[in-house]
Amino acid sequence: MKDVAIIMGSISDLSTMQNTIDTLEELKVGYEVHVISAHRMPQEMINFGKTAAYKGNKVIIAGAGGAAHLPGMLAATTDLPVIGVPVQSKALNGMDSLLSIVQMPGGVPVATMAIGKAGAINAALMATRICALSNSTYLETLSEYQHKMHDKSVESGKQFE
Q1: What distance in Å separates the CA atoms of residue 110 and residue 152, rounded to the nearest whole number?
Q2: Cβ neighbours for 81, distance < 8 A, ≥ 6 positions apart
Q3: How many distinct structural domains can be found in the chain?
Q4: Which residues participate in the annotated binding site?
Q5: Which helix (H) or strand (E) covers residue 26, if one does?
Q6: Among the four residues 1, 11, 98, 149, which has the most C-beta atoms within 10 Å?
Q7: What is the pLDDT of residues 33-58, one digit of tens each?
Q8: Which CATH number goes with the domain that contains 70?
């Protein structure tokens, strides 16, 4: 089952979005990955957004840099929740991506994460939380993930005891 669709505007976004993939793998959440540019492949993007729910996706995570129109344009074509991940850009260090994703007009919501790696990880966690509303297995994996984070933090502080 592919509950989460991960869409990148360009293959160059993979270095950031790999963190989303890795986190979903750790959480054992079904996903699929596509490269679909809002600017260079608009028809494919529209078709994807219109059909994602019918294909069984429950959440779309869209990573994009620069103008970063992909998350918003996907949100305009689907009723599914869309989570935007601003990819760090060279020109403005990701602020352009962040502002492009977060400044959506009323009526076209995109849940926007932090720039870069942290945002990519949090997007996977948020998507899993959304999917966990109807999948108790995901609730269990989220709980295990949180316990691991707790234990890792406790362990890291033991060097000072």
Answers
A1: 31
A2: 58, 59, 60, 111, 127, 130
A3: 1
A4: 10, 13, 40
A5: helix 14-27
A6: 98
A7: 999 999 999 999 999 999 999 999 99
A8: 3.40.50.1970
Backbone angles phi, psi at 50, to 5 degrees: -70, -25
Q: What is the average pLDDT score of the chain?
A: 96
**pTM attached to this predicted model:** 0.95
Q: Are 17 and 64 in contact (CB under 8 A)?
A: no
Q: Across the strands, what pairs with 84?
A: 62, 112
Q: How far apart are the first and last CA of the chain?
A: 46
- Which amino acid makes up residue 30? G
Residues tagged in the binding site annotation for substrate: 10, 13, 40
Expressed as residue numbers, the domain containing 45 is 4-160
Token reading at 129: 């939380």
C-alpha angle with apex 102: 29 to 106, nearest 5 degrees? Answer: 105
